[in-house]
């Protein structure tokens, strides 16, 4: 963990709603909301299930395994603090359990990225309060 993280930090609109995700990340666990009524795992966090609209939602640990669904290579970031990271992959990851999550693919040259490549979650401690979820190639 660096002592002076200079990139933007997450600013959840509803910190209480997303707290289980961020707390899980600090524990090195990828957490997702799941509907207790219809068993639907979903992402992004919300109070009601997007499938059956039940307000009976719990947070569960998922494997952190998935596949690269889609990506773009950022070569000119919109925010100056990311200039030292280019090129980097901004990706949609299809988790094995079903939901898709937007993140970065790290520990892989962008030239080697391929749609459908297996990925696994990794966790980056950036401040004492924030751990970011990213993905790296599984092999």
Question: Can you describe what's shown?
Answer:
- The chain is mainly β and 139 residues long.
- It has two domains: 12-62, no CATH class; 63-139, OB fold (Dihydrolipoamide Acetyltransferase, E2P) (Beta Barrel).
- It is 9% helix and 37% strand.
- It is built from one helix and seven strands, in the order H-E-E-E-E-E-E-E.
- The protein has one helix at residues 15-26, and strands at residues 30-35, 57-62, 65-74, 88-95, 100-105, 118-125, 131-137.
- The strands form two sheets. It has a five-stranded antiparallel sheet with strand order 5-4-3-6-7. It has a two-stranded antiparallel sheet with strand order 1-2.
- A hairpin with a 4-residue loop joins strand 4 (88-95) and strand 5.
- The longest helix has 12 residues, at 15-26.
- The radius of gyration is 16 Å and the shape is globular.
- The protein starts with 14 loop residues before the first helix and ends with a strand.
- The model has no long low-confidence stretch (mean pLDDT 96).
SSE topology:
Blueprint: H1 15-26, E1 30-35, E2 57-62, E3 65-74, E4 88-95, E5 100-105, E6 118-125, E7 131-137
Antiparallel strand pairs: 1-2, 3-4, 3-6, 4-5, 6-7
